[in-house]
Write a structure and sequence with these properties.
single chain; 210 residues; four-stranded mixed sheet; 9 helices; globular
Length: 210
């Protein structure tokens, strides 16, 4: 896929709209994909707390700041992010994405699409054959078209390695499956990393246009 259809951008929502939607649906006992199971609702509620915390505490590192300063001021870029309110990885990552876009000012606009409402788009950006999220599509305004520069996701490389290792272990020994324990371990990694891997990998993504 070389260009992003403008219809995706037109129906996308802002970060604040994405956050508000997730909370409003949770208050009604559901999530962005309609899942009303108690387990998913509890997980989604935890995600709201994670995002609230990261919205307040995320500080951009010098690598990101320098990269943003060097972005061409005469170009318009978009980060189109596919996500869902129930996704734990998204809760750890999208606040960081938004913080970077805010710092970039008019150079970079971040927009959100719900993965399950856009199957054709997510299927064009699979991660190891799966619809993993969040998935970021880096786009440049080119006359009347939206040229795709690159994509990123669904998680930093080190976190992705942990996921792959867990899935392989379960594949070989299904009786070892304990997603709750694995999820706690994965979020422990995010807490220890303090958003640095996410920030640095997104900075490298932006450097594609420098």
């Amino acid at each position: 896929m070389e260009y992003l259809d403008k219809s995706y951008l037109e129906k996308s929502i802002s970060y604040q709209e994405y956050r508000t939607l997730g909370q409003e649906l949770l208050d009604k006992g559901t999530t962005t994909n309609g899942d009303k199971s108690p387990e998913i609702l509890e997980y989604t509620n935890t995600n709201m707390y994670r995002m609230n915390r990261l919205d307040k505490t995320t500080k951009l590192n010098d690598n990101v700041k320098t990269t943003l300063e060097n972005l061409p001021s005469d170009e318009k870029y978009y980060w189109v992010v596919m996500s869902e309110s129930w996704c734990g990885d998204a809760a750890q990552i999208v606040p960081v994405m938004n913080k970077i876009a805010e710092e970039a000012g008019e150079k970079l606009d971040i927009r959100f699409l719900l993965r399950d409402e856009n199957p054709d788009l997510i299927d064009a950006f699979l991660t190891n054959g799966g619809r993993a999220i969040p998935k970021l599509i880096f786009v440049k305004q080119e006359n009347e078209k939206l040229k795709i520069i690159d994509s990123w996701g669904a998680r930093p490389a080190e976190a992705q390695k942990l996921v792959v290792e867990y899935k392989e272990k379960v594949k070989q020994n299904p009786e070892l499956a304990d997603f709750k324990a694995f999820s706690e371990s994965l979020h422990g990694w995010y807490a220890k990393d303090k958003t640095q891997s996410t920030q640095n990998e997104l900075a490298e993504l932006l450097k594609n246009v420098l």
